[in-house]
Specification:
The chain is mainly beta. About 0% of the residues lie in helices and about 45% in strands.
Length: about 120
């Protein structure tokens, strides 16, 4: 299993970013996938998960209504559309296999900084 995240950056509060995760080395379409994040000094936490076949999604309460997870099985990609970003969304964002709990090794992550 290999994943590489991209799309992070610096954005002002209220702004948007779209994160991408390129996956390889496994039968992507058969796996549930998820996004997690780790803020400075805090434990890594689940942000959103998506079932194989896009048959279900789950979101952390803090991002529900603002973030949308999606996948493209033809491209082995997972996305996280983040709208109305807040300073507390500042973190390194990671994708992984699994719907609630990470099941594989971590990729390098992508840094998201929300600041005015």
């Amino acid at each position: 299993v290999q994943v590489v995240e991209s799309g992070g950056g610096v954005v002002q509060p209220g702004g948007s970013l779209r994160l991408s995760c390129a996956a390889s080395g496994f039968a992507f379409s058969k796996y549930d996938m998820s996004w997690h994040r780790q803020a400075p000094g805090k434990a890594r936490e689940l942000v959103a998960g998506i079932l194989s076949g896009s048959t279900g999604r789950n979101y952390a309460g803090s991002v529900s209504g603002r973030f949308t997870i999606s996948r493209d099985d033809g491209k082995n990609m997972v996305y996280l559309q983040m709208n109305n970003l807040k300073p507390e969304d500042t973190a390194i964002y990671y994708c992984n296999t699994g719907y609630y709990r990470p099941e594989s090794t971590w990729g390098p992550g992508t840094q998201v900084t929300v600041s005015s």
